[in-house]
Amino acid sequence: MKNPDVIVIGAAVVGCSLAFHLARDGAKAAVLDKGRICSGMSARSGALVRMHYTFAPEAELAWKSFTYFTHWPEIVGPPGCGFVRTGFAIVVASENVDRLRTNVAMLQRIGIDTRTIDPKQLWEIEPEANVEDVAMAAYEPQSGYADPVATTQSLANAAQRAGAEFVLDTPVAAI
Length: 175
Ligand SMILES: Cc1cc2nc3c(=O)[nH]c(=O)nc-3n(C[C@H](O)[C@H](O)[C@H](O)COP(=O)(O)OP(=O)(O)OC[C@H]3O[C@@H](n4cnc5c(N)ncnc54)[C@H](O)[C@@H]3O)c2cc1C
Fold this sequence. Notes:
Strand order of the largest sheet: 1-2-9
Largest sheet: 3 strands, parallel
Structural class: alpha/beta
Bound molecules: flavin-adenine dinucleotide
Order of helices and strands: EHEEHHEEHEHEEHE
Distance between the termini: 18 Å
Strand content: 15-25%
Number of helices: 6
Helix content: 25-40%
Shape: elongated
Radius of gyration: 19 Å
Number of domains: 2
Number of strands: 9
């Protein structure tokens, strides 16, 4: 590509998402990576798709991104992200109950579908969970996991369909 409008460094989940959005909005985007698509930390992700963060801007971003996971075929297209809804719970012992309540209230103000539940409610949701030393849990019924490599590859494919160019095995030495 000659004279790209934007050069994206890194063809992992963030770079491929950036390239997809830029190209979709009409920019000439070139993506450079020193390795292959998804050869960085993205391939090592634990794959959780959840909104429980303690930093409000991060939680807001996760909530906005969540629509992508639930509507992937319409927004991004093939081959898909492998999202599976399982529900997500984070548990705390008694000394952290107040902090968890405060955090869940912050997440609810953003609009995130989350609530606190007691150990009995958690056990009813997941009977195999050992809830003996659990004082409280935050529960997100809509959350789950996705396939990090498929997610990245799908964004890369969508970026390419929209006109972005990938230049791989090309380390960037300076900016
Ligand atoms: C063990 C683990 C578990 C995780 N679990 C989760 C989870 O459950 N849920 C979640 O949402 N997040 C999780 N994360 C975080 C998530 O994986 C990262 O936030 C995300 O992958 C970062 O993506 P990225 O595109 O910014 O960077 P990376 O995936 O690290 O990609 C950076 C890219 O830049 C390229 N690059 C670097 N330097 C150069 C250069 N000089 N020239 C050219 N290319 C270069 C690399 O080759 C690489 O492809 C986890 C991370 C780890 C490590």
